[in-house]
Design goal:
Layout: H1 6-9, H2 23-33, E1 37-41, E2 47-52, H3 53-60, H4 88-91, H5 105-115, E3 119-123, E4 129-134, H6 135-138, H7 146-161, E5 169-174, E6 177-186, H8 189-198, E7 205-214
Parallel strand pairs: 6-7
Antiparallel strand pairs: 1-2, 3-4, 5-6
């Protein structure tokens, strides 16, 4: 069975910034490379933080409009006792939340959701940056064709992993939606089949109408005393 990892879908050639990279140079990196964020790394390529478009906009929100008017009641950075954000070190969101190359995509998606981020720098076991993964990368497995999904379920899951006889389970896949039908000996086998098939890359949803011969999930009758 295929279980895609971060390493397989991440961007390997990462555009980065140093802590001293100026504001305008970061904006230029965004425009030149058609990206919306850059990891900030130290001399050993260890992630320190991430500068995103939102970070740049947050900094420029303190500036007046073209006619010199303020959009709202805001304090100047000097009045707030804060330095102007001029470099990546001052702009970045820190600490950097990182992923690892061997993580599966579900684990990665959960981390992004929990941390409220759109992308994660990927660091190896030494802590050095080796890639970056975004939410769009996580969706890449859903581009798999129906025939590839069908073949993996039929051969890798049902035949090789579960050792089911041919034609025990019928598999239909349409636009990533899997429908399973057929008959198995034991009712307890059905949730196992469903769980393994649902975990196949590219499966959007799964429906089953599998019959069974023996209900081994029924409550045991209390033995006589």
């Amino acid at each position: 069975m295929q279980h895609r990892t971060v390493f397989e879908v991440m961007t390997h050639n990462v555009v980065t910034a140093a802590p001293t990279t100026p504001f305008k140079e970061i904006a230029r990196l965004f425009a030149d490379h058609d990206i919306s964020a850059v990891p900030v790394v130290d001399e050993d390529r260890r992630p320190l933080g991430v500068v995103s478009e939102a970070d740049l906009l947050r900094a420029t929100a303190q500036l007046p409009d073209l006619e010199g008017r303020w959009a709202g009641v805001r304090l100047l950075s000097q009045e707030r006792g804060l330095p102007d954000a001029e470099t990546a070190a001052e702009l970045m969101t820190t600490p950097a939340v990182t992923a690892h190359p061997g993580w599966n995509l579900v684990e990665t998606a959960r981390t992004m959701h929990r941390k409220g981020v759109k992308r994660l720098p990927v660091a190896d076991e030494t802590g050095r940056l080796v890639g970056i993964i975004s939410r769009s990368d996580l969706l890449r497995p859903f581009l798999r064709g129906d025939s590839a999904i069908h073949d993996e379920i039929e051969h890798d899951v049902l035949a090789d992993t579960l050792r089911l006889a041919p034609d025990t389970i019928r598999v239909d896949v349409t636009d990533g939606v899997v429908t399973l039908s057929g008959r198995v000996d034991r009712r307890a086998d059905i949730p196992v089949i469903v769980r393994l098939c649902r975990s196949v890359d590219g499966v959007v949803a799964l429906h089953e109408s599998i019959d069974y011969g023996y209900d081994n999930l029924a409550l045991d009758v209390e033995p006589p005393r």
